[in-house]
Design a protein that fits this description.
Strand content: 5-15%
Shape: elongated
Distance between the termini: 48 Å
InterPro entries: Methyltranfer_dom, Nucleotide-bd_a/b_plait_sf, RBD_domain_sf
Organism: Micromonas commoda (strain RCC299 / NOUM17 / CCMP2709)
Radius of gyration: 35 Å
Strand order of the largest sheet: 16-15-14-17-18-20-19
GO molecular function: nucleic acid binding
Protein name: Methyltransferase domain-containing protein
Mean pLDDT: 77
Number of domains: 2
Pfam family, one: Methyltransf_32
């Protein structure tokens, strides 16, 4: 350890940084697991590659494991060669599939100060003559293969003029008791070697020649590969073969296998599981429906629906009913996409209302298509009105609306059995689309026509949605909202550049780059205050932009000073309020709040994953 590092460690308040006590970083308990990953335990001994010349004279460092760090000089005979062969055989046996894996308690052996007092604290140094003919060589480049470094060190020692002979060169490698940590990334070994000579006098004379001398290696860390060595003959008894192999210390039992849940469907859903669902090249398939999923995936998706909105676990049953009503419209991508967008809208509404800037009374779902987000908002907020608009009323809208209305009716008429997992009565397929007598959510209205037919109904207590609206639909929605000083939330799909940048040529961009660029342009032009991206595995049009949340005084000032089309904060310099999203589970929608407060006879059921 150098003087500066010694002072830094001595002044450290972290117990793990006291190398003399054998501390370590990023260690899970004492089993040698890095960051909780049992696979991070190295094999015993550390596998080292045998170097050989491959085709075209290139050096291949990727051959099978051997004990290359412990080698004898060429021409040695008898017992030394026999011990080297035995060590190599032991290494080969230990790396075979049949041999049991060895585990050691991490850093359970003696510390560096006891093993190398010559490199440690000044008070640890001894004035007496060394008892063993050993040199500890440090400051070696860790990006050079240890086998190759052994050859370089031995060749360097042969060029020196000293009385004696080098009999063994041993590199310090990683092992079960000294595994690789995060700070060891890219290191092929631990950076020091142990040289054994035939006599103590030879070790002393060679150490004097090596200390401070430059060693030329193929390292890329120093200019020309030159690196000064540090040498000492003050080597403690703890510096033995096990210390160099990283196998010193106490034995440890193997880490226990990860627990396997009795019911995999009971675990909280992670969006990383979407990879298991039918996919296109990089996101969910546009055609796969709930009926196309195998039972295991259906169970996992049902868990996702149960946890989608805190206090409303019936979402899973709602979508199951929608599948029975019109299964061809229950496409997995569209449902998951709508649920994630619904969660963003709920968070945005909660943020605006918590700041006191706005109270949302009406939602307008423009260019709604299947209208699932607007329908979920109508179900979650029965005290607020939702108006959906599109050029045509689709059968998918009818199916989803009837499914949610069915459970809204059950909450009123049979609250005691609302959460029972009873079998729903069979529903004739297509009934929702063919019958106008199906149930309706009382606060949900659908209007057929162009978007501007709803403009007279939008006011400052409104929130205008346009989720995956194409081209002019996004711009018309944001313009309608800003003209009425209303909140707005858009999830752009197709964006023509000339709508926002008529004098700019957008070219030589990938589809993802162009989409992100145009979303930025939209956010800048209309003064977006929030931008969030839903999981990219769901859709490649994943950006959600929100804005319009200004307090009353700021809005009046904007109206008086602005030269635009009306009130609201339009443009990046017209937005003075910076918002942040509250966590989804911290805000209860109206229906869940009523259950928790006892205003509804249906029992409140919390989401287990948010507790």
């Amino acid at each position: 350890m150098g003087k500066k590092r010694f002072e830094r460690v001595a002044n450290s308040t972290r117990p793990a940084a006291k190398l003399g006590g054998g501390g370590g970083w990023n260690i899970d308990g004492a089993r040698g697991i890095v960051d909780g990953d049992a696979a991070s335990l190295p094999a015993y001994p550390t596998p080292l590659s045998r170097r050989r010349v491959a085709d075209k004279g290139r050096v291949d460092l990727t051959v099978a494991a051997s004990d290359a760090h412990e080698r004898t000089r060429a021409g040695d005979e008898g017992e030394t060669n026999a011990s080297s062969s035995a060590a190599a055989a032991g290494a080969s046996a230990s790396t075979s599939h049949s041999a049991p894996r060895v585990y050691k308690k991490v850093f359970s052996g003696v510390g560096w100060r006891a093993a190398a007092p010559g490199f440690g604290n000044p008070e640890d140094k001894r004035d007496d003559a060394p008892r063993r003919p050993i040199i500890l060589v440090g400051n070696l480049p860790t990006d050079v293969h240890p086998g190759e470094l052994v050859d370089i060190i031995e060749a360097h020692c042969e060029s020196l003029d000293y009385d004696g002979e080098l009999t063994r060169t041993q590199m310090a490698v990683f092992g079960p008791a000294r595994p690789k940590l995060k700070r060891d990334r890219g290191r092929l070994h631990r950076g020091f070697a142990l040289l054994t000579f035939d006599t103590v006098a030879a070790a002393l004379s060679c150490a004097a020649l090596l200390d401070g001398a430059d060693l030329r290696t193929p390292s890329k860390k120093t200019e020309g590969g030159l690196r000064p060595m540090k040498c000492t003959t003050e080597v403690g008894d703890a510096m033995d073969d096990r210390f160099m192999d990283g196998t010193q210390g106490e034995d440890a039992p193997p880490p226990p296998p990860p627990p396997v849940p009795d019911d995999p469907s009971a675990a909280p859903f992670s969006l990383s599981e979407l990879r298991r669902f039918p996919m296109r090249s990089n996101c969910l398939s546009t055609h796969a429906t709930l009926a196309d999923l195998d039972p295991a995936l259906r169970d996992r998706l049902a868990r996702y629906f149960r946890d989608a909105c805190e206090g409303l676990p019936e979402f899973a049953s709602v979508f199951a009913r929608a599948e029975r009503l019109a299964g061809k419209y229950t496409r997995v991508k569209e449902i998951v996409e709508s649920v994630e967008a619904f969660k963003v809208v709920v968070s945005f509404v909660a943020t605006c209302e918590r700041t006191g800037a706005r109270r949302v009374r009406k939602f307008f779902d423009l260019a709604c298509g299947h209208g699932l987000v607007g329908i979920m908002l109508a179900y979650a907020y029965p005290d607020r009105t939702v108006m959906a608009c599109d050029r045509k009323r689709r059968e998918s809208f009818e199916a989803f609306a009837e499914a949610f209305a069915h459970y809204a009716s059950r909450e009123e008429n049979s609250p005691a059995t609302f959460h029972d997992d009873e079998v729903e009565p069979e529903v004739e397929p297509g009934a929702a689309g063919s019958s106008r007598r199906s149930r309706r959510l009382p606060n949900l209205t659908f209007v057929e026509g162009e978007l501007d037919v709803l403009a007279p109904n939008v006011d400052s207590n409104s929130l205008v949605l346009a989720l995956h609206g194409c081209n002019e639909a996004n711009k018309d929605s944001m313009r309608m909202a800003t003209s009425a000083s209303a909140l707005w939330c858009v999830m752009p799909c197709c964006i023509r550049a000339n709508l926002y940048l008529p004098n700019c040529t957008v070219s030589k961009m990938t589809d993802d780059q162009r989409y992100a660029f145009m979303c930025g342009v939209m956010a800048c032009e209309y003064g977006a205050q929030m931008a969030r991206c839903i999981d990219r595995r769901i859709t490649n049009r994943a950006v959600v932009l929100c804005g319009g949340c200004e307090d009353g005084d700021e809005e009046e000032g904007d109206k008086a000073d602005g030269d635009g089309e009306g009130g609201g904060s339009v443009g990046p310099f017209g937005t003075s309020t910076k918002l942040r999203f509250y966590s989804d589970h911290k805000h209860l929608v109206t229906r869940a709040r009523r259950r928790k407060d006892g205003e509804s006879a249906v029992a409140f059921v919390s989401n287990p994953s948010s507790r």
